[in-house]
Amino acid sequence: MSAIAISPQSARLLPTADTTRITAQSLDAFGNVATPKPTLTPRDPTLISIDAAGLVRALRRGAATYVVAAAGSKIDSILVTVLAAGQIDLHWCREPARAWGQDR
Question: Mapping DSSP to helix (H, G, I), strand (E, B) and coil, where does residue 62 land?
């Protein structure tokens, strides 16, 4: 095994969603699926839980944590953000942010 592929690269649980799925695979030097299968572990198990199939469940809202995929000596991670009601998802803003007082 030479790498871990984890998908998606980041995840956001909107206030109307309680679950999402993460997949992780071990890959050999040629990009083929290899063993062992990575284990997925949340850095903050009070925010989210993850089952063996990669189903992520929100346990509380308004925070973010990393999910670490590990197999052998290889690791990778993604950021999972769990938005609370009323939080703005800035990921979808189309216009770049401007400094205060900067003209358009």
Answer: coil
Give the separation between CA 97 and CA 63, rounded to whole angstroms.
22
What one-character-per-residue DSSP string does 73-103 give? TEEEEEEEEEPPTT---GGG--SPP--TT--
Given the DSSP bridges, would you call strands 55-58 and 10-13 parallel, antiparallel or unpaired?
unpaired
Mean per-residue pLDDT, 3-31: 94
Cβ atoms of 48 and 58 closer than 8 Å:
yes
Architecture of the domain delimited by 3-92 = Sandwich (2.60)
Distance between CA 74 and CA 69 in Å, rounded?
Answer: 8
pLDDT digits 0-9 by tens, 33-87: 999 999 999 999 999 999 999 999 999 999 999 999 999 999 999 999 999 988 8
The residue assigned the tokens 């690791």 is: 75
Q: Tell me the C-alpha distance between 26 and 63, whole Å.
A: 29
The pTM of this model reads 0.80
Report the pLDDT value the prediction gives residue 22, as an integer from 0 to 100.
97
